[in-house]
Amino acid sequence: VQTGENEMSVYISRNNTQPTKHVARYSLRLDGFASVKAPYHGGEMITKLLTFTGNELVLNYSTSAAGFIKVEILDENGKILPGFELENSKEIIGDKIEKIVTWNRNPDLLKLNNKPIRLRFVMKDADLFSIKFR
């Protein structure tokens, strides 16, 4: 159940047949059931081919103060798309449910709508919970 703007809760009945019967509530971040996690020394992930519609890539993520996430977009053959290179990706740090990914010179994501792409995430001391295009 969503119990806040950035939170969902799971309710569990405890000690059902005992006098101490009660309901416990556990909360977690929205879409926080699982994540791709990179350790302090870093890591990366490349998605399978996907298509999308929209003009923004939005991440649900969390990093440490020393961590970050950067995103690169590849074509269906694994070639880096101009404007979406890793070195042009603005470093993402902090803890947000919705953060729009940006690149220097603001390349247009609309030109990639309905074309097969892959996303390459380079991360350090970070959790990536979900991605979406809108």
Helix content: under 10%
Instruction: Calculate the terminal CA-CA distance, rounded to whole Å.
Output: 24 Å
The SS-based structural class is mainly beta
Order of helices and strands: EEEEEEEE
How many helices?
A: 0
In round numbers, the mean pLDDT is 95
- Unreliable segments of 5+ consecutive residues: none
Tell me the radius of gyration: 18 Å
Number of strands: 8
**What is the percentage of strand-forming residues?**
over 45%
Shape: elongated
Description:
With 134 residues, the chain is an all-beta fold. It contains no helices and 8 strands. Strands 4, 5, 6, 7 and 8 form a 5-stranded antiparallel sheet that branches. A hairpin with a 2-residue loop joins strand 1 and strand 2. The model has no long low-confidence stretch (mean pLDDT 95).
Give a quick rundown of the structure.
The chain has strands spanning 2-4, 7-14, 22-29, 36-38, 43-46, 57-75, 95-100, 117-133. It is mainly β and 134 residues long. The mean pLDDT is 95.
Task: Please supply descriptive tags for the structure shown above.
5-stranded antiparallel sheet; 134 residues; mainly beta
